[in-house]
Amino acid sequence: MSRERPEFIQLDKGDDVPSVRDRLSFFHGKRVLLIWPEDGTVLTRKLDLVLIQREAMRRAIQLALVSHDAQVTKHAQELNISTFETIGASERARWRRGRAKEFASRFRRPKDSPDPDELMPVASRIRVEETEESRARRRLTRAIMLVALLLVILALVYVVVPGATVTLNPATSIVTTEASIIADPDAREVDIEGATIPATRLQLTIEETSTIPATGSQDLGDMPATGSVVFINQTNAGVIVPVSTTISTSAGTPILFRTTREVNVPAGIGQQVEVAIEALQSSAGEVGNVDSGLINTVIGTLTESVAVLNINPTSGGISRTITAVSQTDQDRLLATVRQQLQSRAYTEMQPLLEDSQFLIPETIAIMEERSDWTTFSAAPGEVADTLTLTMRATIQGTAVNERFGQQIVFAQLARQIPRGREVRSETIQYQSGPVNEVFQNGQVMFMMIGSARVESQINVGQLQERLAGRSVNDALVYMLTELDLEPELTPRVEVSPDWFGQMPILPIRIGIRIERVMP
């Protein structure tokens, strides 16, 4: 029996054999410890213990006692029942298996029992006296049987006891392939040989609005700069300076001005008169704003008669342009909105995909756009700071089932697997590659890449049979020559017991452990 924790039965002074047997009925196949009370019970006879022990054996109960009663202890020892002083001692010690019968020895036989010789005439069998020859033959037979039994035991030990563990590293490698797959909307099933899979066309009509700053301009005309100059008489006679007399600067590119009215310069050298001026149209705008002293040249017939000089700077010259819409703005905004429509269509088509389908981005295209679906907020040349476009279009895209493509990739991978090796299914990886071409008929050619780890196949049952009974060296030679293993890793063989020196006879006693090496 196992050494599980025993069940305890605390006896009372009034307990008798029937009550104890009833209490034992609650346990079956257990270890039960009967605990005698300190002041004893009525269970003091040996017969009581015999009856209790029989009930325990009938219920497969292993019995032991805790008692200080010397008589109970004596009877228990005669019945081979373990007795202990304390409960703790019962948990530490080994229990004996009791017996339910009491056999009397020849010395305790009753005095009036008959002699065996007196029973000979009525015995059912009469023992015949053995001769010396029969005794020798009997001894020889026993010796032969003993030797045969020993040989059988040794043979069983030789066959059953030895064991071995073989650790192998199957050869592994990585295979990859790139499959060029055609997704055809008109196809109804996967064509492995033709590398063609069905495709699904998705179509949406959506609207998008976008705004950009206008980059064109419109010229409203430049405002000329104005100011005043002083004409200085260079003669002794009076000089008339007509309206619109042209004067200019002399440094760099000449900036031209004209007088706005006619004036008379008094006679006498050094006589002066001031008159208002404005920039000519060719010098209009901000360029006409010049500093004092820069206007110093008279153009025309009065060059020798008068000199000119602006005492104060001129001002008020403005170049007037405003922002307007250009044709470039419209073209740029149209291209932007078209791109936004395609991006939005790609997003809105995702919920339409079935399981394992993916949308090929390169197939997203505008199938229909109409003039009444395209509205600009301003025409080219119109004054505006921004340009807005509201556009509706019908977008179409092509979706394919990734699993269909994986079937083709796996078929091409399978063709590359070396003979005698198999694919580790958990290592297969697929990756969608670039789109090579989109055809006019809606077909799409794209790449899909696949990779997997393959390793040599090892028939464990066959290998166990081939290694059984071989020496360890012979087993290593067989595995190195007949199995496809990693070239730099030698098989490891562990034999038990160590001194056995060869592989077990029984194939089932050879354990095969596979260790996979990541390439």
Short descriptors:
single chain, alpha+beta, 519 residues, 6-stranded antiparallel β-sheet, 9-stranded mixed β-sheet, 9 helices
The helical percent reads 10-25%
Question: Alpha-carbon distance between the termini?
Answer: 52 Å
Share of β-strand residues: 25-35%
The strand count comes to 26
What's the multimeric state? single chain
Largest pleated sheet: 9 strands, mixed
Radius of gyration over alpha carbons? 60 Å
Secondary structural class: alpha+beta
| Total number of helices | 9
Q: What is the general shape?
A: elongated
User: Spans of 5+ residues with little confidence (pLDDT < 50)?
Assistant: 122-126
What's the mean pLDDT score? 86
Model description:
This protein has 519 residues and is α+β, with helices and mostly antiparallel strands. The protein has 9 helices and 26 strands. A hairpin with a 5-residue loop joins strand 23 (429-438) and strand 24 (444-456). The longest helix is centred in the N-terminal third of the chain and has 29 residues, at 132-160. Residues 122-126 have low confidence and may be disordered.
